[in-house]
Amino acid sequence: MNKNRQRTFIENVQPLVDNGLYPIKREPGDKVHVTADIFRDGHQKICAWVEYRVAGRQKWNYVRMECTNPGLDFWEAEFEVDQIGFYEYCLASYCDDYATWVFDTRKKVDAGVDYHSDILEGIELASKFKGWLKDSDKDYLKKALAQAEKQLTDAALWQILSDPKLEALLSANPDPATRVESPLYKVRVDRVKARFAAWYECFPRNCAFEPGKHGTFKDVIKRLPHIAGMGFDVLYFTPIHPVGHTKRKGPNNSLVCSETDPGCPYSVGNEHGGHDAVNPELGTMEDFEELVKAAAGYGIELAMDFAINCSPDHPYLKQHPDWFSKRPDGTIKFAENPPKKYEDIYPLNFECEKYKEIWDEMLRLFLFWAEKGVRIFRIDNPHTKPFRFWQWVIAETQKKYPDVIFLAEAFTRPKLMKSLAKLGFTMSYSYFTWRNEKQELTDYFKELTTPPESDFYRANLFTNTPDIFPYFLQTGGRAGYQIRAVLATTLSTVYGMFQGFELCEGIPIPGREEYLNSDKYEIRYRDWNAPGNIVEMIAKLNRIRKENPALQEYDNLEFYRADNDKILFYGKSMGDNHIMVVVNLDPFQTQVSTVYVPIEKFGIAPDQFYEVHDLLTDNRYW
Amino acid sequence: MNKNRQRTFIENVQPLVDNGLYPIKREPGDKVHVTADIFRDGHQKICAWVEYRVAGRQKWNYVRMECTNPGLDFWEAEFEVDQIGFYEYCLASYCDDYATWVFDTRKKVDAGVDYHSDILEGIELASKFKGWLKDSDKDYLKKALAQAEKQLTDAALWQILSDPKLEALLSANPDPATRVESPLYKVRVDRVKARFAAWYECFPRNCAFEPGKHGTFKDVIKRLPHIAGMGFDVLYFTPIHPVGHTKRKGPNNSLVCSETDPGCPYSVGNEHGGHDAVNPELGTMEDFEELVKAAAGYGIELAMDFAINCSPDHPYLKQHPDWFSKRPDGTIKFAENPPKKYEDIYPLNFECEKYKEIWDEMLRLFLFWAEKGVRIFRIDNPHTKPFRFWQWVIAETQKKYPDVIFLAEAFTRPKLMKSLAKLGFTMSYSYFTWRNEKQELTDYFKELTTPPESDFYRANLFTNTPDIFPYFLQTGGRAGYQIRAVLATTLSTVYGMFQGFELCEGIPIPGREEYLNSDKYEIRYRDWNAPGNIVEMIAKLNRIRKENPALQEYDNLEFYRADNDKILFYGKSMGDNHIMVVVNLDPFQTQVSTVYVPIEKFGIAPDQFYEVHDLLTDNRYW
């Protein structure tokens, strides 16, 4: 439109991420609740719509906005998303000239003053609508106007012109010349698993049923009933590719390595292939595909680790020496964090001239594995590669496989973690692993579950990882594991644990948050029924999550009052499903606290009895 | 740049108004303190600048940003504005490759590991800079490299390459190919009077020195010493144009009007002319120009009322009948707020086909009066005209007269008032007139003086206006006037009062916030020395404002603690100048309260004695 003629203004649109630069995120079945300040000069009426569609489709859908706070010019509307992929939407406002005319004229009619001239104006105004109404509506209008022509009194004409059906029709089809629209905004819709999932992380090579033996995909298949029994629905494998030989690391990351040491799977590639191959010790590609299918039978989806680390033996080094950084003497550079050297890893040089070849190859790998049935990728250290690369490769992968989920394993500064989420990562690691106290848990989870953050950042809470053995678990004993299990399963909807957590096991490297004899560097065997395990509790927590819709929503977390600083009290509601969680954050002793149940939020009157059902013990209280 | 190669990101730039859609506002001497989140993937160093210039000038100025919170990737810089008009600025970030090299290599040097290859890389990297350094810098670099060539040991080479002067030079001139820049943002710089001024509003026709006589510009000249004596520096006139005859309103807005009634000056235009003429009863245009000069001699600037209301006798009606709305019968429409009729006012139709003619004519009027020496316009009811018109006419006027100040007299919904300020109004009326209680004053002034609002909205606090005689003044007696005078002069830096306030005068229309016998409709005479006046107090308040820099800053307002809900305690600081204001909001009785002086903000130790100087009574306390 001619900007000079613009009368309505649309401001402060919500929800937006960085003013619409990045999409907001939703899952099928979600509502996108759009709000904005919309106004014009003067007192004339205006109207507004949210216009949305599945990106790329022709058909637009319209939902009329409602001014729910006229004093603040605050408008609202919502629409539902059900397709995976992108939606786009904009806001459009118009002058509602006919409603203005009816409103103003009614005041004269009611006041009993002469309104003959207004009637003539009303007819003129209504007639203008013939210029843009669609045929069926035009017919309706024409009939009304023809009927009006036969009337003799202003009162009779007023009856026809103020007919609510006519007013509604013309108000629904305002003058297109008055249209003002917002920029086009985007919604990224990921499947529900992006929001609600329980991850179990393991090294498949450490799944054998015999101490000292290299586990295989077939062993993992045998472990599936146990994993499914605990209620997990994502099985996340550390890298399964051939492991480098040169400078291979021994147990506990030692530089010395024996013939039989399996190496670190994050050093990818040897004579058997690179990122599109499987380690023959784990089995064949067919074994892997069989495992994918078997897992699906248990309702378990496989997640693959994607670590852009090449061992000195990776085929790329010979095929594409240009992809790597070289020293002035022509040799290829290994990874360094001066003065530390990582001689078993050669990083791809994303700054090289042929960087686009690297991008294309990475895309090929994602599509290759997606084709094999892997639709969840956990990306190792994405914050050390160019962010624009991730933005591109995620978008390109999802163009072909819209259901692919990318988890950003970035444990770094908050702005970088958020940026990766904005640029396309479906979900992200978080600082949960190091938040133990009431205040810090409350602050952090309020931030995570409140816009703008909840609109683009889905925090996948890991209790532990092969690299992180938190002090809280090191010192808190079995109760410590139980505390962290409850927090992880209820503070977010998506969480993960690394194998062994359920056994409350682990010996730390003294003074460090790391495991001694880490799975990363050696073959390990575990007794999955070792005494003291919390397998049953985890199974129960996962069952409770599945049975209670309130625990399947991400942004409905609320913190309630508990007097004791060691007692964290929070809850989630979804319709009639109200979950309250009370956690003793102190693993060493019983803590007592008054907790203040927010009965008003649950629609319970102050004098009303209500039942509380303890889902862990199955006790019921009045 | 090629977006694929982008490594740094600039986010969350502050201060911005609507994400940079509208300029922030400042006055000469102000600092623009720019902050942003700037980061890149990986661990390499980056650098950033704020680049700014007076809009339209060729020369850019650069100020390097500093990362003041590395954990949050938070960067800051500031620049000063001293020219009236627009500044533009952007943020630019780069990869700081040489600083990265020095940092990484230093770690190896310090750890005593071999760094020969790094030295070779450093030389190669430094050489690259020859590609973009300016000649004098290039010479410096070449000399350093030539010196390096003569060295035999890595240690000697390291000395040359890590020379802080060389590092600073190359860090100040990073690879232009890595440049990432923000959008261009704008600062509107208005003269200091936009922020700091004391307005006195009057009807010049009511300035005669004899009851019943129509005042003149010459009378106003005689009143100047009194007005200047009270400390006012802006004298704001309600419209001074010829007043319409047809349907002229009588006293108290009555429809009946006698021969001698002067009419309402907001009904502009008669046979003597329209908006570019002066009412002959006030004097000639020469008289007016003389008044402008005489006022300047007292340090007083004239502000003119700009009311786009045409009387039925305005020349426009004959010259430009197309500019008005017509009824179906061809007659021109007067103003209505159904069922109310305003038959003495014909509104211009900004929706007419020739609307651009109206725009041009309005611009002509602003330029006409600016030429006559009027550089402050108070715009009557801007919220009932198209906002895009204001945006245009303000911008066009300020192109020719950058010092022109526009005050938006919009008492309407907050979003409209804010929008007008964003679109170009220099300052705005506010809800101050109706904020009397401690909590509402605190809330409202926190909002006004905090970003984003303080970046675009300058609230001109009016104690009263010809249209508004607040209940607080109606009922509060002399103390009520004193309370409002103290609040107006200290809560904001710019405020106004309508003549008669200083006399604590006024008879209300019962049950309404309006004056009986309003100056708007009749000739009125006042005894400017009437007993009970607060002239001296106002003079003292204005003197205190001029003597204390803290009271000349808008956004330095802070509220402090006072136990009594009727006692408002706040303050302003600027350098060593600390002003505390304690106001009893209760006009009816003495109130007692403990107030908590924030000595830590004033740099006073808890055990230190300090003096408080009561600027109203000149008492001093220890």
What attributes characterize this protein structure?
homodimer, alpha/beta, 27 strands, globular
Describe it for me?
The structure is a homodimer of 622-residue chains. With 622 residues, chain A is of the alpha/beta class. The first copy, chain A, is built from 14 helices and 27 strands. In chain A, a hairpin with a 7-residue loop joins β23 and β24 (567-574). In chain A, α1 packs antiparallel against α2 and α2 (116-128) packs parallel to α4. The longest helix of chain A has 21 residues, at 471-491. Chain A is globular. The N and C termini of chain A lie far apart (64 Å).
Structural class of chain A: alpha/beta
Shape of chain A: globular
Per DSSP E runs of 2 or more residues, the count of β-strands of chain A stands at 27
Radius of gyration of chain A from the CA trace? 31 Å
Strand content of chain A: 15-25%
